[in-house]
Design goal:
With about 450 residues, the protein is an alpha+beta fold. About 20% of the residues lie in helices and about 35% in strands. Strands 7, 8, 9, 11, 12, 13, 15 and 16 form an eight-stranded antiparallel β-sheet that branches.
Length: about 450
């Protein structure tokens, strides 16, 4: 007889995020998803029922299943990203419920950065608003391959098909122009449970899947072994003990791809080439290792390698550059300005840098580029050119979400300023803005 553990190990994992404007019902949708899929423990449901009764609500407020912070419960809003783990017979899920307020867009960037699917909620009464477009743009920038438009509160518009059709058409056209490869629109009522887990009896005009059915069947791929092999060095291990007098290993987590003993590799940014003589994983020597395993590589030559260096196959190395062209989501309250000194953190490497140029800022209404804004403020999405003090081995974000992303950090207090994605902004966008040569840089 097959055990539950064996069933779960045989199912695939889907990471997905929810997003939408304030009061669109994200937390209620997540709560309904957990409740109707029997993923809520009895004591959790009892606690929600007690809080709901204390507020004078007759039915349990399912949003409380995800709004865990006291401030969230008191204000009835989502502030931080709430992660929830649940499973059905067909698939396991890691869900990131992200806030809807404009000032918390940075949290949506966090929640969607590792997601394979994003559920964008829209209030059927309000349609597509600026925050909806912002979330669609963030999903496109983060190269989330699947986007679900959940048109919520259909019960408040009498389950009218024309209302849903108009919203779906507008959003689909907008998201497609951003290069989102797949968009699925589903009419729902999270409060009533229509088309969340069970099909709605009120919308016989809709013949598509429910939200859970789509989540269970959407194709996902976690095969990082097919990507360019990349190994950011986290730590150099040199025990220098009687048992291991000459041991020198380079520890870290494989970001993508496969590494094999005997393979020729290059160490970046120096460009030195050597061969892998051994791979240690969990205290044992192995012949092969793949992402996302944490391993220690042993190399044939004593090369100067330290934390932040990148090991890659000699025949497939990323470009090394000091001029980084990227799209960033600015997440700090303080603006990002031309000429500003920052720290750039890429994988395990952190280097000093200067914001050389901000060529444009994205206008979300019509996707036009506002040229030379001079600075980016909180929640802005814009193009930047950054000059680093030291060379970086940087993939484009389109090639690798792991090694094509970076953070810009305030060197004074360590605050994260912007989340960056190297290379072309959107899948359907034109070539990135070129960096100008400037002889006046002081590094």
């Amino acid at each position: 007889m097959t055990t539950t553990a064996e069933q779960l190990s045989a199912t695939t994992l889907l990471r997905f995020a929810t997003a939408g404007s304030v009061d669109d019902g994200k937390s209620t949708l997540v709560g309904r998803l957990l409740h109707d899929s029997k993923s809520v423990l009895a004591d959790q449901l009892e606690a929600v029922e007690q809080v709901s009764l204390s507020r004078g609500q007759e039915a349990p407020d399912l949003a409380l299943l995800t709004d865990g912070l006291r401030a969230e419960r008191e204000q009835g809003i989502t502030i931080d990203v709430a992660y929830r783990y649940f499973a059905t017979a067909r698939r396991r899920f890691i869900l990131a419920d992200t806030p809807g307020h404009v000032q918390y867009t940075r949290n949506m960037v966090t929640g969607a950065s590792t997601a394979e699917l994003a559920v964008v909620l829209v209030d059927a009464r309000n349609g597509v608003v600026e925050q909806t477009r912002r979330h669609a743009a963030v999903a496109a920038l983060l190269r989330v391959p699947h986007v679900v438009l959940a048109v919520n509160k259909m019960d408040l518009v009498d389950y009218a098909e024309p209302v849903f059709a108009a919203i779906a058409e507008e959003f689909t056209a907008y998201a497609a122009s951003l290069g989102v490869p797949e968009i699925t629109a589903i009419p729902i009522s999270a409060l009533a449970g229509d088309n969340v887990v069970e099909p709605s009896a009120h919308m016989d005009w809709y013949g598509g899947p429910t939200v859970l059915e789509h989540l269970e069947t959407v194709p996902v791929s976690h095969d990082l072994t097919a990507c360019h092999a990349r190994f950011p060095v986290q730590y150099v291990i040199r025990p220098q003990t009687a048992e291991h007098p000459d041991y020198r290993g380079y520890a870290g987590q494989i970001a993508a791809g496969v590494f094999r003993v005997g393979e020729a590799v290059s160490v970046l940014p120096s460009g030195r080439t050597t061969t892998i003589t051994g791979i240690d994983a969990l205290g044992e020597s192995v012949d092969i290792a793949w992402a996302p395993q944490s391993v220690t590589l042993r190399l044939a030559d004593d090369i100067d390698i330290s934390r932040g260096d990148l090991i890659a196959p000699a025949a497939d190395v990323p470009p090394v550059t000091q001029d980084v062209e990227a799209t960033v989501c600015h997440v700090a309250d303080q603006p990002l300005s031309v000429g500003q000194r920052v720290l750039l953190k890429h994988t395990t490497r952190t280097v000093k840098a200067i914001v050389k140029d901000i060529p444009s800022r994205l206008t979300l209404d019509d996707l036009s580029q506002h040229p030379a804004p001079g600075q980016l403020v909180a929640n802005d999405i814009g193009r930047v050119v950054v000059r680093t003090a030291e060379p970086l081995a940087l993939d484009t974000y389109a090639d690798s979400r792991r090694t094509g992303s970076f953070l810009l950090i305030d060197p004074a207090d360590g605050t994260t300023l912007s989340a960056g994605m190297a290379g072309t902004a959107f899948a359907a966008a034109t070539e990135p803005v070129a960096a100008d040569d400037d002889a006046e840089w002081d590094f």
